[in-house]
Write a structure and sequence with these properties.
The complex is a heterodimer. Chain A is mostly helical. Chain A is 78% helix and 1% strand. In chain B, 35% of the residues lie in helices and 23% in strands. The chains are: A mainly alpha, B alpha/beta.
Chain lengths: 278, 266
Amino acid sequence: MDRFISRLLFLAACSSTAILALIALFIFMEGAPILFRSGFGHFLAGRTWAPLEGQFGILPFILGSLWVTAGSLLLGVPLGVACATYLAVFAPPRSALILKPAIELLAGIPSVVYGFLGVLWLAPLIRTHLGGPGLSILGASCVLAIMILPTIVSVSIDALQAVPRSYREGSLALGATEWQTTRRVVLRAARSGILAGVILGMGRAVGETMAVIMISGNATHIPGSILDSVRTLTANIAIEMGYAVGDHRRALFATGVVLFFFIMILNTAALRVARRKF
Amino acid sequence: MRTTLPRGLLILTALCLSGCSRSAQNLVTLAGSTAFQPFAEKLAEVYLTTHPDAQVNVQGGGSAVGIQAALSGAADVGMADLLDLPPEASSLTSTAVAKDGIAIIVNPGNPVSSLTADEARSIFSGKTASWKEVGGHDATVRIISREEGSGTRRSFDALVLGGDKLASGALFENSNGTVREAVASDPEAISYLSIGLVNERVKAVAFGGIAPSNRNVKNGTYSLSRPVFFLTKGEPSPAARAFIDFVLSPVGQGILEKEGLIAVKE
């Protein structure tokens, strides 16, 4: 019986890996031919996306993904880490009891709702006060920053709470203030855990599609400033997939291949960091 | 390997449906244009009240999928809203069942209310950068277009841009609804939309001095319009034939008129 159960579990473990392998195989089979045919240089460094005319340059979208992700991290990480520090170290139990579930609730809001809020409220705000189309890198970054907040906060709280009490007590006993202890001891000790949270959040930001389509404007040029409209890799696939046939469709799969590597690199980094003990 | 995913899905759905149905020969499957899909569903709804033993299955996917589905036989009827059918569709029998006008829209706060064909072409190709040049405020023109592959986009590019390219800084929205929302909230935006979907949140501008309306499309004075085609491979099945005849009948055409499209037959 034991062996049977263990076989069954082994099979279950294999199946998830097999699904991943099949997805990878499928994307590669659909996307690789055009990557090789039109050349990696043309694809990765090309600046013009005109799929119906055989121009498949996705450099603007790679840069778009990078910009939007970087922007969301720039806004979301300080906020998220500050929030987690307060909740894990300073907050009286009662306020933590309200704040923590409230932040986690953010994760439950569908991304289309974030996108909708972004279009109706944030984009006009940016347009009137800062100029540009409003549907922009800045707008997408703000919305994504809020979306990745729950991930960063909850992982960081776990990391901060995992720091042994003795570290804190030792530091306080040596005469350090509460803030000095938090900054120099607790945060430093929880560094790798917090970093893992940030990288998980980054993965979410790269993969987010719906909200980004709605608020980034989806222009196919290389953005000149953070107020410019931009298109990300995920948005490019989602917007055009419904209509694409032939080479256009294969080019979208090739975009998926690029995205696949993008995310794989991020995940590998996340695992590396998470495994490193403090 | 040539079988694409949407086609594969269509085949699967078709197989399922034909497997389940009691009388497969009464089933008509339509697939294609997302712009025409709601109208096709409405038509099917009315058709079924008078033909209780028939089955009509309407699927979306886009005009390109409509052509592919008709070619592969995954759908009895492919729907495509394109000005010119691409060469791969030349082996299909095409029947125009309706016409749909395209209106150029701007924000209601924009003083510009009329554009000539040259002005429109110059704006959408990016040569006119400021609204001032066409009689508006001193503000940058923000072009919003549809995604590559959309039937509305292809028709609009052919009708307005001719050989010119769309401005490189154009923004893209992937449905009529989001286009309308984007223009409604941006005082400097310009885009285009099916005439039937224009509402009070946006302002439709006259093109070449003619106001965009179904009546003007019908009498031929307003030139921005595209036909909606039903595509069939060879001779359609009796069930499909009956449905197409219904769509072209006064009742069917009346439904399309009432829903905001333009009839091709009186």
